[in-house]
Amino acid sequence: MIRTLPDIKLQKLSEFIELKLALHFPKERWDDLERNIRSAAKEFEYQDVDSFIQHIVSSPLTREHSELLAAHLTISETYFWREPESFEVLEQMILPELIRLRQKNNKRIRIWSAGCSGGEEPYSIAIALTRIIPDIKNWNISILATDINPRNLQKAVTGEYGAWSFRTSPKWLKEKYFIEKNKGHFQIIPAIKNMVTFEYLNLAENDYPSPLNHTNAMDIIYCRNVLMYFNQERFRLVAKGLYNSLIEGGYFVVSSSELSTQNFPDFLPVNIPGFVLYQKNSSNKRKQNKNEISETYPEPQLFTLTAKPEPTPVFVQDLVKPNLSETESSVFKEEDILQTTDQIYEEILNTYSKGNYPEVINRLQKVDLSPDEQILLIRAYANTGKLSDALTECQKAILTRKLDSKIHYLYASILQELKQPDEAIAALKRAIYIDPDFVLSYYSLGNLYLKKGNMDATKKYYKNILSIINKWSDDEIVPESEGLTTGRFKQIINATLKTAALS
Ligand SMILES: C[S@@+](CC[C@H](N)C(=O)[O-])C[C@H]1O[C@@H](n2cnc3c(N)ncnc32)[C@H](O)[C@@H]1O
Predict the structure, then answer these.
(1) pLDDT tens digits for the chain (503 residues)?
(2) 148 & 206 share domain
(3) Looking at the DSSP assignment, which residues form a beta bridge with residue 146?
(4) Ligand 1 atom with least separation from CA of 223
């Protein structure tokens, strides 16, 4: 593209974007910047790009507009089986290891595709799982796919793609997992489509991990070609949040162009010939904190990736095992007794925000928990994947706080993770009975009915949401949403209503 905007204007614009949106546009990417700002100008209904730039730098941006701008400034370009090595490592190393660990246990696997664009990445992950797990129907598989751009999410939910989305993917992928609808348009098969849940989530603003947005206790997180847009500070914060969203031993996959020990100091790099990924390993973090040498971790020269044309389940036994041991228990010091309850709660909250969930659980093993402590304990259990403990704690909390709609909602979130949709529906209805304006409960109900294929119920609950939030201002944060604005929520509901009407 030929740049027509003068350098001085692009310089000012990139500084403004860095300051307001924490997105980094060095000079080498000014072509992209100009192209993207032109497409944003169109969406904001500006005839010429100059007056649009003038407008955004001189008037306060609402949060909704910031997000819309961010969605334009970050490219959504992607395709199926992008960087094949990242799926080969999933099929040949990570999944066999997880299957071995979980098949006698709870048969649960949780994966998050953060910045999923139009769904090509999470659907590729779902295909890899289907290829590797022969009895997949007996497993509790969650693939959460999130993005900031509602248009991308709408495309993903529709599940229809043109030939360009398969440009480098293996032939079997399109043949086996898609149905040609009309010439050059391919529909993902329902068995794969139903494995993925799409949700709106702004990695820069929303809170995670949280059982409320299902970003807790992930075994694997793919966050590829997203972090590279952020400036250093935002990058660090997002990487920390994603680290906390993983369980101990969980894996983190970025694109090969984003690899950097400097950028991911908490993670342990795992080098496989042909690919590098990261692992959450708290003992590695502790070592680094004490400036100890971390080179003692074995270099996994254990296998080389080989492209697999046909699905053949591989069970690799002797790979590097994630260290699944819990953090050592801490001992209460005597001074603690002299601390006030508030101080102790603040301290535990601080430990929670650092992502040290085993320590939070440890400290909250006492009777007479306050309501806030009880919530923190439930969330810490959920974040470490101890869902049955989280459920038991919720049940205890409900006994004493029957009229607390938030507890019923949290209970429903845990039940959904345990794949108990009918019990979750009952809990959500109780939350709405107690608080008829609890819009996220209507939203979860709508989504649960959508999964069941009950479009009438979905539409009913979504319309209830609109009738409540249409009275709110667009910048208001939706209660219990971990940072979602009302304006964005309206867009999501309207977009999903459109998609639901299509099918
Ligand atoms: C290039 S695509 C990456 C798609 C896929 N992960 C891949 O590697 O092929 C980048 C995606 O990140 C999303 N994105 C950008 N900023 C985001 C944010 N703050 N929160 C969530 N998603 C974001 C964009 O909307 C876009 O869909």
Answers:
(1) 677 899 999 999 999 888 888 888 889 889 989 999 998 999 888 989 999 999 888 888 777 778 788 888 888 889 999 999 999 999 999 999 999 999 988 899 999 999 999 999 999 999 999 999 999 999 999 999 999 888 889 899 999 999 999 999 999 999 999 999 988 899 999 999 999 999 988 898 888 999 999 999 999 999 999 998 888 888 999 999 999 999 999 999 999 888 887 788 899 999 988 899 999 988 766 556 554 433 333 333 334 455 544 333 333 333 333 343 333 334 334 444 456 778 889 999 999 999 999 999 999 998 889 999 999 999 999 999 999 999 999 999 999 999 999 999 999 999 999 999 999 999 999 999 999 999 999 999 999 998 888 989 999 999 999 999 999 998 889 998 888 889 888 988 887 787 765 44
(2) yes
(3) 114, 199
(4) 6
Taking a C-beta distance cutoff of 8 angstroms, is the pair 127, 177 a contact? yes
The pTM assigned to this predicted structure is 0.82
**Sheet (strand 246-253) strand order:** 196-200, 140-147, 108-114, 218-222, 246-253, 275-279, 268-272
Amino acid at 181: K
Q: Are 188 and 178 within 8 A, CB to CB?
A: yes
What residues form DSSP beta bridges with 284?
none
Q: Which of 256, 289, 322 delimits the end of a domain?
A: 289
Query: Could you tell me if 236 and 360 lie in one domain?
Result: no
Pocket probe for ligand 1: among 25, 226, 253, 256, the residue whose CB has the most ligand atoms within 8 Å is 226
Q: State whether 173 and 65 are in the same domain.
A: no
Structural domain of 205: 84-289
Domain co-membership, 56 together with 100: no
Question: For residue 373, is it within any domain?
Answer: yes
Residues near ligand 1 with C-beta < 6 Å? 70-71, 74-78, 82, 115-117, 121, 147-149, 152, 202-204, 224-226, 229, 255
The residue type at 251: Y
DSSP 190-227: HHHHTTEEEEE--TTTS--S-TTTT-SSEEEEE--SSG
**Counted domains in the chain:** 3
Q: Indicate if 97 and 33 belong to the same structural domain.
A: no
